[in-house]
Design a protein that fits this description.
Number of helices: 5
Order of helices and strands: EHEEEEEHEEEEEHHH
Oligomer: single chain
Shape: globular
Radius of gyration: 16 Å
Number of strands: 11
Structural class: alpha/beta
Length: 234
């Protein structure tokens, strides 16, 4: 479902509607791909000091995690999907990361995971190029991912993105030293994300452990901490 430029509140309502209908088995799994006008959104664990200091409005949302920014030049994806049993939120987040890593590779940029953190990162583990935040209700996941293609990255300087103080935010355009537009990135991301989501949601079992890069100075996620981190923006 390619929707173009959509205000955040409208997309949030659409997600909740589709999630309710997916829970009721009225619709199939759906992948929404769009772009938002500039907006800050804050998950439940956002601290006051992580918000904009100038009083810029922030939309408080029902996902876990902390604050992030969405806006022009950023490709946002909202998979509304029923997760397989046994429920494994970390494996689902790793699946989203895998789709984004494959898409970045096709666009010319090698990326990786960072142990102990969600999202997609440059291979040195120092700069984040894609954030992930999910919510699961009655085995149906919504919210999703945001891939920085060619946004104005100064928007991130007014917050503490995802509560992370020791790493930077980057984009495909900055890393590749050329402009990577949404029309270029969207079909690539769509193809890879549909493939990984279809493979994940049709599994009969979910592996309890998945490989995670140890790039960067971060500790691996363990036990219940891993489940908590899966429902975060990171």
């Amino acid at each position: 479902m390619r929707l173009g430029l959509v205000p955040y509140d409208d997309a949030w309502r659409l997600q909740r509607c589709l999630a309710d209908r997916r829970i009721a088995a009225e619709v199939d799994d759906t992948l929404i791909l769009l772009e938002h006008p500039g907006v800050y959104t804050a998950g439940r664990r956002t601290q006051p000091w992580e918000r904009p200091v100038d009083g810029t409005p922030v939309v408080d949302v029902d996902r876990g995690g902390k604050i992030t920014w969405h806006g022009p030049g950023q490709l946002v994806g909202y998979p509304v999907v029923r997760l397989p049993e046994p429920l494994d939120l970390v494996a689902y987040v790793r699946t989203l990361e895998a789709g984004l890593i494959a898409a970045c590779a096709d666009l010319g940029l090698a990326t990786t995971r960072v142990a102990g953190r969600t999202g997609v990162w440059t291979t040195d583990g120092e700069r984040k190029i894609a954030a992930i935040g999910v919510r699961v209700r009655r085995r149906v996941a919504y919210h999703g991912f945001a891939l920085n293609c060619c946004p104005d990255l100064t928007a991130f300087t007014h917050i503490v993105p995802c509560g992370i103080t020791d790493a930077a935010v980057t984009s495909l355009s900055r890393e590749l030293a050329r402009t990577v537009t949404l029309p270029e990135a969207l079909p690539v991301v769509e193809d890879h994300m549909v493939d990984v989501l279809r493979a994940f949601t049709t599994r009969t079992t979910v592996p309890r452990t998945l490989p995670v890069s140890t790039s960067g100075p971060h500790k691996p996620v363990r036990g219940t901490e891993a489940v908590r981190e899966a429902e975060m923006s990171g």
